[in-house]
Amino acid sequence: MSDARLLAAEAVESHVRAFFEGHVVEVVDHDFGPERRGVAPDLRVLVVGPGPRGGGWAYVTAGCWAATEEDGQGLEFVMTAHVRDQRFIELMAMVAAHHCGGHRLALEHSMPIGEPWVPGSSCDHLLISLPYLHGPGLEHLPLPGGHARVLWALPVTSAEIEFRARHGHEALERLFDEAEIIPTDPFRASAA
Is 0.85 topped by the overall pTM? Predict the structure, then answer.
């Protein structure tokens, strides 16, 4: 790992630990497979347990910014779930591989998962959104030589993606508010 990438990874981890003070934060650095390692060589997933900021689990990438930054700007991603599960670590690795592998994700983008978020869930896409559950304190991450934004990988349904295509991103977010979705509930009804 180069010094710059090491400093960036350490800064991401420090930011997540400071934001989630009082929570247990585990760094998962395992074999994500050669394809994912090739595009995000230093990728780790930070697994944040329940605590003062909420009862759910947060999964945060560390290594996307270092693999893709341009002019010091880049992204990391967070997913919030109801339990700790290896499945969510793998999904975050998939998001990172997609983003770092040339399919740059950005705010208001989406990507298909290819299967349900969890077995039995109707959520089969991820919508890249502002991290509403955590706010700007997590979203804005100063790094040595730049800045990262932490964006939310929100599990959504195909119907919600189709609604967004017809009516726009803001209309979908209003629909979520009106339906009062619980974003960590994998079995929630589709808002569209």
Answer: yes
